[in-house]
Amino acid sequence: MQAVIVYESVYGNTRIVAEAIAEGLRGARPDAVVRCVPVAGAGPEVTGSADLLVAGGPTHVYGMSSGTTRRMARLAAAGTPAGNEPGTRGPGSDPGPGLRTWFRSLPEPRPGARGAAFDTRADMLISGGAAHGIARRLTHHHYDLVTAPEGFVVESTGGPLRTGERERAVAWGASLA
User: With 70 as the cut, is the pLDDT of residue 120 above it?
Assistant: First the structure.
């Protein structure tokens, strides 16, 4: 089995979850080739051979991030007021495109390819989540979802992950195998 975990991360929390999912997959399937890559490094040469594609990102404004919300988050992470220093990036951020842009150029998968979606989100009734939008895009690209979209909770916008969420991500990754 070849699995690829693609993530978008601004504050580093989604990266931590993605790496934990990869750890869970490796533990459950030691024979699997598991790659965990930021969205900027997830071109067709990386995703094209995946039997399982797991995609995840942070929740911004009730759903998937956009160019504007990514820029605002990077500025906030760097402590810079919006509108200043547009090249500033926050800790753990990937400077490449967001998942929305990445999905536009995602090639058709190999026959029988499976997918899964996750996000990081605040534990608030009105916070929404990005995972359902990610899952819809995976199915639109003909990936068969192996499980329902999953959300992992952060304590505040910049993190950290809530206690136990990293371990839950490892277990979720193992369940994908």
Answer: yes
